[in-house]
Amino acid sequence: MRTIGVLTSGGDAPGMNAAIRAVVRTGIDHGLKVMGIHRGYSGLINGEIFEMDRRSVSDIIHKGGTILKTARCEEFTTDAGREKAVNVLKVFGIDGLVVIGGDGSFRGAQALSKLGVAAVGIPGTIDNDLAYTQYTVGFDTALNTVLDAINKIRDTSSSHERISIIEVMGRNCGDIALYTGIAGGAEKVIIPEKGYDLNELCRIIIEGKIRGKLHNLILLAEGVGGANELASKVENVTGIETRSTILGHIQRGGSPSAFDRILASTMGARAVELLIEGKSSRVVGVQGGKISDMDIDEALSMKHEFNEYLYNLSRVLSY
Ligand code: ADP
């Protein structure tokens, strides 16, 4: 292994820059040439590739987003597109590739592996929807962003004795809603893994009001449905003023938390080590609190299991 490439792909996540920095500096430390690839697989196909040195990743550890930019690339999902990508890697002399992204980006890395490319994945997504790893880079920062919003909404919700429905991201994974529901003391967490019953939800709200609750904070994962629609249904049934807040893309930005910076730094370093050790077609993750790695096929075949214990706890603690 002499030259490696690094790209970020799919939805961006805070901490991607810290991961890029770790890949570049660890790679150089091991005597490798490190090439940055702009705009994910799209930039790979188009040859948007340049050499990175230690200074090229100066002053980025605290920045959200990704200095390499990210993209979604339709062409790469075709055989012809992927063959082009393999040829470009050959032309630039890249023997190993680090892909920082989510599930879709990993499927891309898997496809490249099947074509003989030594690829290693670093999980970069706020959704925490990759089953093989306890944490993905960006998840912790997103939790803190949502928590900050919940704290603010709680103030105004209490003053007006309103119901507040807060819609958070996560695609089909309820982890952001579940973890922030626990951390923010929400009355109810609604996640795709469990769904909800409108009558039961309204009963919880009405009973809470009778017991003297000043507000009702409901964390809704985007994969279940829209907050606006739910708010009008809840208001109709309970007769209590209900406001919806869709947090949207603020969850994807911002300076990464200490946890995400450390996670990204260690994962970046491990990804490079794996390539040097000749262990490709692997993804880096966290298992049992430790940095681990797994075969990409095995990792992608796992089904994400949500934390039933935390879900039940959120119900007990909200009472
Ligand atoms: P994320 O990585 O955040 O899940 P996407 O699902 O949008 O984001 O995937 C990012 C990119 O990865 C896509 O635009 C596409 O180029 C590539 N990709 C996604 N799925 C596949 C697949 N099954 N095979 C090959 N490439 C894929």
UniProtKB/TrEMBL annotation:
List the Pfam families hit by this protein, alphabetically.
PFK (PF00365)
Q: What is its main location?
A: cytoplasm
Signal peptide boundaries? none
Keyword field: Allosteric enzyme, ATP-binding, Cytoplasm, Glycolysis, Kinase, Magnesium, Metal-binding, Nucleotide-binding, Transferase
Among the GO biological process terms of this entry, one is: fructose 1,6-bisphosphate metabolic process
SUPFAM superfamilies the record matches: Phosphofructokinase (SSF53784)
Binding-site residues, Mg(2+): D103
Under catalytic activity, the entry for this protein gives:
beta-D-fructose 6-phosphate + ATP = beta-D-fructose 1,6-bisphosphate + ADP + H(+)
Q: Where do the annotations place substrate binding? A: T125, I126, D127, R162, M169, G170, R171, E222, R243, H249, I250, Q251, R252
> Binding of ADP: at which residues?
R21, A22, V23, V24, R25, R154, G185, A186, E187, R211, K213, L214, H215
Gene Ontology CC entries for this record: 6-phosphofructokinase complex
EC number(s)?
2.7.1.11
What cofactor does this one take?
Mg(2+)
Q: Where in the cell is it found?
A: Cytoplasm
Chain's role:
Catalyzes the phosphorylation of D-fructose 6-phosphate to fructose 1,6-bisphosphate by ATP, the first committing step of glycolysis.
Family listed: Belongs to the phosphofructokinase type A (PFKA) family. ATP-dependent PFK group I subfamily. Prokaryotic clade 'B1' sub-subfamily.
Give the protein's recorded name: ATP-dependent 6-phosphofructokinase
What is the native source organism of this protein?
Answer: Clostridium collagenovorans DSM 3089
* Name of the gene this protein is made from: pfkA
